[in-house]
């Protein structure tokens, strides 16, 4: 095939594409759409509540506290604790999954527990804090976030599982310069994982 023939095919293709995209066909389609029943004209934009109703619901929610910019549901946990301008380093930490195991689990396998994380009851977070006293530690535990602050260190840790924040325990070991935080895991299927 020579270059002239290739350009001719290319030109015909462009003209065909131009004819497809021209306004004359759009006018024909609009005329055809006018003949269609109203229910057949429905598209994806008509799915769900009408926009006015949604705006009214949104306004009703915001009228409760008109000074609020956003609701608490819209803000992720832990975001107010993240300060990029804070020069304090992050301490070394380790997350360990804990599981209560008895002789019936180890020797006989009578319970449904296995070594997977699905059967674990708690998270143990070990945080190394050199040159720190227990009185210097400020600890705040939320359902999905752990915030630790000292004079020398800061740690904002997003937890791998939701936890029961009010049932958490913390213990500082001065000889090892280590803080251990035990967090009970909150699971939707807790009744299934227990004995």
Fill in the keyword field for this structure.
single chain, 195 residues, alpha+beta, Immunoglobulin-like, four-stranded antiparallel sheet, three-stranded antiparallel sheet, 5 helices, 7 strands, elongated, dynein intermediate chain binding, protein-folding chaperone binding
Structure, described:
- The protein is α+β, with helices and mostly antiparallel strands and 195 residues long.
- It has a domain at 79-193: Immunoglobulin-like.
- The protein has five helices and seven strands, in the order αααβαββββββα.
- The strands form two sheets. It has a four-stranded antiparallel β-sheet with strand order 1-2-7-6, with no helix packed on it. It has a three-stranded antiparallel β-sheet with strand order 3-4-5, with no helix packed on it.
- It is elongated and about 85 Å long.
- The mean pLDDT is 76.
